[in-house]
Amino acid sequence: MKFCIRCVMPDTKPDLMFDSNGVCSACSGQEYKTAVDWNERYGEFQMLVEWAKDEARRRGNAYDCIVPVSGGKDSHIQTYMALANDLKPLLVSFEPTVPTELGKRNLRNCNRLLEGCDLIQFRKNPHLYRKLAKMAFQMVGDHEWPNHLGVFTVPVQIAVRYNVPLLLWGENSQLEYGSPNNQSMKAQKLDKAWLYEFGGLLGLRPQDIVEMHQTISKEEMTPYL
Predict the structure, then answer these.
(1) CA angle 69-84-72, nearest 5°?
(2) 174, 183 contact by CB (below 8 A)
(3) Distance, CA of 131 to CA of 135 (rounded, Å)
(4) Are residues 72 and 133 in the same domain?
(5) Which residues make Cβ contacts (< 8 Å) with residue 207, sequence separation at least 6?
(6) Are residues 65 and 163 in the same domain?
(7) What's the number of domains the chain is made of?
């Protein structure tokens, strides 16, 4: 096994790459962030905020943006920044595999930040989810695969149904935790292609489940598409 000479992350982490000096791509991502002009980036964010407000008004929508949340640290700062910039966010949460009391409390706290905002939590079909978790563990070694998928698909589906113009994701996980290339690390728009290639699916796509396992239909997989 190879370990990063700085953070000692092992090479068993999917998508983690090492440079010629033995530094992992997650550490390189931290270097990239220190070189970003954050004042300029905040200006870009404010332009995006104004666009979302105008677009929501044009659509007659009560919500300017969707913030996908779990209740953790990213969820809090995303929600806070949206509210502090006078956006009207709709929070969307995909229920975790094993909800904890602390996790539930944190999610309620996001709901109540500043003047508060609406929150939708998608509670999964536990029987289907258990099947998917078992299949994913057997096929790619990750029982959290359906959760990785749901946190990216459900907020998008709700954005379409509610006609909300903007989603504010918490992070580009390739930048934070390691990436196979600079393109994925520096991505600022997380689309379907990014999800399938870099979103933690480990090469297993939702279509594969339908094609390979006759006991699960495409209709059942709707939340994960």
Answers:
(1) 25
(2) no
(3) 6
(4) yes
(5) 225
(6) yes
(7) 2
Q: Does 85 share its domain with 12?
A: no
DSSP annotation of 97 reads S
Q: pTM for the whole thing? A: 0.87
CA dihedral 116, 156, 164, 81 (to 10 degrees): 40
Phi, psi of 29 (to 5 degrees): -65, -35
38: CB partners within 8 A, 6+ apart = none
Structural domain of 148? 36-224
Q: Mark whether 200 and 107 lie in a shared domain.
A: yes
- Residues 8 and 73 grouped into a single domain: no
Q: What are 161-219's pLDDT values in tens digits? A: 999 999 998 887 777 877 777 777 777 777 888 788 777 788 888 888 888 887 888 89
CA 113 to centroid of chain Cα atoms: 20
CB-based burial label for 171 (10 Å; 0-12, 13-18, 19+): exposed
Based on the domain organization, do 15 and 71 belong to the same domain?
no
Q: Are residues 13 and 44 in the same domain?
A: no
CA angle 186, 11, 21 (to 5 degrees): 70
Same domain as 55, residue 13: no
> What pLDDT, on the 0 to 100 scale, is given for residue 6?
94
